[in-house]
Amino acid sequence: MEKVVLTVATTGAWTTKDQTPYVPLHPEEIADEVYACYQAGASIAHIHVRDDDGNPSMDYKKFEKTVNLIRDRCDIVLNLTSSGGLGLDDEMRMRPFMELKPELASFDCGSMNWGHSTTFINSPPFLEELGQRMKENGVKPEIEIFDAGMVYNAEYYQKKDIIDSPSHYQFVLGAPGGMAATVDNLVFLKNLIPKDSTWSAFGIGKMHLPIQYATLALGGHLRVGMEDNVYYSKGVLAKSNVEFVNRAKRLVTEIGKELATPDEARKILGLNKQNSTVAN
Ligand code: ZN
Question: Whose C-alpha in 59, 73, 117, 214 is 20 to 30 A from the C-alpha of 277?
Answer without folding.
Answer: 59
